[in-house]
Design a protein that fits this description.
Length: 133
């Protein structure tokens, strides 16, 4: 079958990212001893839906246009962008989980990508080929 990222597959990039985000939230919540209901409820999927169409989306568009994080934040001055701080916390969590041997290097590809972009300043395409594994 067609794989995410194939130009001919007709896949929806936003849907692929959303699905991967839910899967990675589920993995992180399980690692923290939380319940699947937390992921599937308003504080999980509900908040993700609102976040992906709000202020954090505006930041992503600016980053996708090639602006640095600082330049994008300057342009969005006055907006609360909790997603940046969430990704900084995610960076620390991924490092701790990997150091403790609780996750492998290939796990959480979307989270690692967000860390690379927002914490590391890397400009790279979304790694669709690593999703769903």
């Amino acid at each position: 079958g067609a794989r995410a990222g194939d130009a001919s597959s007709g896949f929806n990039a936003e849907a692929a990212v959303f699905a991967q985000a839910v899967a990675e939230m589920d993995r992180l919540i399980a690692l923290a001893g939380g319940s699947r209901e937390a992921v599937l409820g308003l504080s999980g999927v509900g908040d993700l839906l609102v976040t992906t169409h709000g202020r954090n989306h505006a930041l992503g568009v600016l980053l996708g246009e090639g602006l640095s994080l600082d330049a994008a934040l300057d342009r969005l001055e006055g907006l609360s962008l909790e997603g940046v701080e969430v990704v900084r916390e995610l960076s620390r969590a991924i490092q701790a989980l990997e150091s403790a041997g609780r996750i492998g290097a290939a796990e959480l590809p979307l989270g690692r990508y967000l860390v690379d972009v927002l914490v590391g300043g890397v400009q790279a395409p979304i790694p669709f080929d690593r999703f769903g594994r």
